[in-house]
Amino acid sequence: MKILFLGDVMGRAGRRAIVERLQPLRERLKADLVVVNAENTSGGRGCTAGHAQLLLESGADCLTLGDHAFDQKDMLAFIDKESRIVRPLNFAKDAPGRGHTVISDARGRKLLVTQALGQVFMSRPYDDPFSALDGVLRAHPPGGLVQAALVDFHAEATSEKMASGHFCDGRASIVVGTHTHVPTADIQILPRGTAFQSDAGMCGDYDSIIGMDKTEPLRRFITGMTRDRFTPAEGEATLSGIFVETDDRTGLARSAIPVRQGGRLAATPDELT
Amino acid sequence: MKILFLGDVMGRAGRRAIVERLQPLRERLKADLVVVNAENTSGGRGCTAGHAQLLLESGADCLTLGDHAFDQKDMLAFIDKESRIVRPLNFAKDAPGRGHTVISDARGRKLLVTQALGQVFMSRPYDDPFSALDGVLRAHPPGGLVQAALVDFHAEATSEKMASGHFCDGRASIVVGTHTHVPTADIQILPRGTAFQSDAGMCGDYDSIIGMDKTEPLRRFITGMTRDRFTPAEGEATLSGIFVETDDRTGLARSAIPVRQGGRLAATPDELT
Amino acid sequence: MKILFLGDVMGRAGRRAIVERLQPLRERLKADLVVVNAENTSGGRGCTAGHAQLLLESGADCLTLGDHAFDQKDMLAFIDKESRIVRPLNFAKDAPGRGHTVISDARGRKLLVTQALGQVFMSRPYDDPFSALDGVLRAHPPGGLVQAALVDFHAEATSEKMASGHFCDGRASIVVGTHTHVPTADIQILPRGTAFQSDAGMCGDYDSIIGMDKTEPLRRFITGMTRDRFTPAEGEATLSGIFVETDDRTGLARSAIPVRQGGRLAATPDELT
Amino acid sequence: MKILFLGDVMGRAGRRAIVERLQPLRERLKADLVVVNAENTSGGRGCTAGHAQLLLESGADCLTLGDHAFDQKDMLAFIDKESRIVRPLNFAKDAPGRGHTVISDARGRKLLVTQALGQVFMSRPYDDPFSALDGVLRAHPPGGLVQAALVDFHAEATSEKMASGHFCDGRASIVVGTHTHVPTADIQILPRGTAFQSDAGMCGDYDSIIGMDKTEPLRRFITGMTRDRFTPAEGEATLSGIFVETDDRTGLARSAIPVRQGGRLAATPDELT
Ligand SMILES: [Fe+2]
Ligand SMILES: [Fe+2]
Ligand SMILES: [Fe+2]
Ligand SMILES: [Fe+2]
Ligand SMILES: [Fe+2]
Ligand SMILES: [Fe+2]
Ligand SMILES: [Fe+2]
Ligand SMILES: [Fe+2]
Predict the structure, then answer these.
(1) Interface test with D, best of A127, A156, A160 (most D CBs within 10 A)
(2) DSSP SS3 for D116
(3) Average pLDDT, stretch C141-159?
(4) Chain centre distance of CA D112
(5) Which of A53, C7, D88, D252 registers the highest number of CB atoms within 10 A of its CB?
(6) Annotation marks residue D154 as catalytic
(7) Does the complex come out with an ipTM higher than 0.90?
(8) What does the DSSP 8-state code read for residue A248?
């Protein structure tokens, strides 16, 4: 199966890139399924029901969220109605929605999509993501009930992210990090067959501070003083993520390449035209 | 000027890669100057005087350190004798050594090398890196006293790292992050001419947890229990960093490309042979 | 000199306690000077100009602030007009106002009042408080230019707070912590003569979570989910702080006792009637 | 039932105070049961099997631990042999030992003793303590299977500690914090009958930095540089804790007073002679 995963969609610039460029990218890559992290879709903070629908109509088959899952309050109710949205397994004991889902491609092949939050350097404490992932992966062996399994590990620390990859190695098709909004150049297939990237990067404007307009965050770093709110940067977004081809029989990765299209970062695979 | 910067050298595997492969890489790239981050050279914790000399004899013109600067106690005395080693400007009020230095290439062209520690998510508090960098950059305008200026921003958070790039944009030739041990795929020339990469990655074994053998860190993440010490992973290291060509007149960047050679990561520029 | 210090005034309940009970308390204790921490006076977040004036008219001779110093935006301008308000020395490079001031009692005796922010477990990074305090204390030797010196060390960690006490021991009359909103029972005169208490506690309702109504913080701790804003608890506040008598000649402490009046905590010295 | 709880025993000074002064204190207070936090008994880091036995022979009926539970490696095996030692419920998934125990006084009355770790500002992440405590308290309703229940909430943040008190209010006899090594002066009986103190303080030398000799921690705070290890301060320790009388029928608190004996802090109840 050919699976495209794109990192955190950042505000209007990110939405525009998805609406205008995801469908052609999907076709060009012949992706069977597309998963998109949507936790920053609405003004950089969470994702409204309307924006979730927009992404799902624009070429995404499934959305993941993150620590900002419910920053937009209508998601609290919407997530229970839309089975294609996944919030972190360990978001909170009383969180609505689901921490994993199974989606199908046009040929009926199944992909498990799940997400967990790291514990290191996060703004709130979350329960152990490793045991949470363990349960879900045991229940969905790739090559068994599902043809492939994708883990979005939403975390800050590279140590914890690399640990998530090795922990799932051989049990998931793809472990891809999100949350830092910067793509990493460490894509590899781990020893037991799982495709891994520490962070997919964001779908946002890279002339920014993690997708936000530079002015206010720079002021805070330089002067220590706060003046305004953060607002997403409005320059052209780079679609950023990972493209993996999996073996339907084993669920393991055959190949994994970075995807970056548009905006300021060097294009890979070569420019979409 | 052509400047090669390589990220955190990680233990024996990293040292071996430097000793065996830095000189050919340097020649192939026709690098005029090479700067290497050495904070994890000795067992993953700090850098002994002997290992510092080894790196300087193996093709490095200058070494930077980081939060682990003085984990090996002999560096406390050695750093005052070796002007080619830079510790963070804001390491501590009473730290020995220097936070910036100027080195010269074979043709006498000068490169300022400086380093600062971020404040976000670090294990100890450090004073404001932005005002520290401001002073050093004002005193060394590229295109003036020096032909180029390189800032190693040793930090965890992508927000603070991107802020360091924009803060120095137009005033430094290169701002490159270190500390996370994972290379980022966001190399770009910022609007006012500074080459930027959030993290150079490590010179270490990428089948690991940030360069450490996987067993013990995985145990701690999964079980919550400690058993052994961390030891560096011993597989072949990837040399990882950034290569920048600067304009000697303006000190700004003309081009910037990723460098990854050997080990498990995809090679760039194409494989060194 | 007899000096009363009261900890963080928390919202309306705290203001009411100051307005109604500070003047009688002051008289009963025969306090020469009263310093009050005002960082949570207005809705629990910062202190408006109007509320600052109210406290100064109700028996406080000087106000200190904290990490919430400028949560109420009108304080940014007001602090430069009112010399009796002190913000932390190390709040931020570009902060308005002053980090220390000297006030005088009815007999002309002078008290230095200064404040610093700790670095451990704080929500933002601050520069080194120890060197900042060092400069101010050197310039104002108690028993010299001033008869006494009070340091409000606004910090979370007990280790850093105890360190601040020992660091200033013999150089300040009083080192008293603030910020945790819980009074500590460790009042002592340190070996070289400085009165010390790790935290003065808050002037607020102790049937609460650090002065906030219990409902929302409990929800967040128990369920992990956010619903409403925090609002200060409205039950009767306890005035909480420390009362120190100093030697005008040496500036050192002769005696130090806890003060807690009203609300839920056991009264000391015996109930004010 | 009359229950005495003493906070973190700190090194040799703390052990000596327990050995020499706990038995007389126990008799004078006519305590039916004594619980002691032992996480810093051995050199300030953890508690060896031998030191645990020493405390249990010196007047303690039960020991609690904390984040330092297994710093002394022989505790990993010993805790499974000694049912009177409790480690935190949420220490780690694979931790040996138990998170709660039931002990009996001379008249056969039963006391539940349990411990949980907070999540805020701790050096490692722990799973949700509130749901862990909920399960234990539901299974041991005071006034039912046990006559009383004591919760040692081992945490840094005053907000989380106060939340633990309100969460257990009416369901436990005593909620007492540990870990900060400074006693708080906020002892109260909460609205539904639970005796509460944010922190019991340590049994250690208060002319110190949280029980450690001042020299090295002061050096680190002031200079930012490390030289030596931390070692416990050796001055006379203060026994520090809380004494609660409970109603055997309801399990709720009738009275709660601070206990501080010896060393530098003001004695309460009046000096033991
Ligand atoms: Fe996130
Ligand atoms: Fe995000
Ligand atoms: Fe580092
Ligand atoms: Fe490093
Ligand atoms: Fe406060
Ligand atoms: Fe505060
Ligand atoms: Fe502890
Ligand atoms: Fe402790």
Answers:
(1) A127
(2) strand
(3) 95
(4) 14
(5) C7
(6) no
(7) yes
(8) T
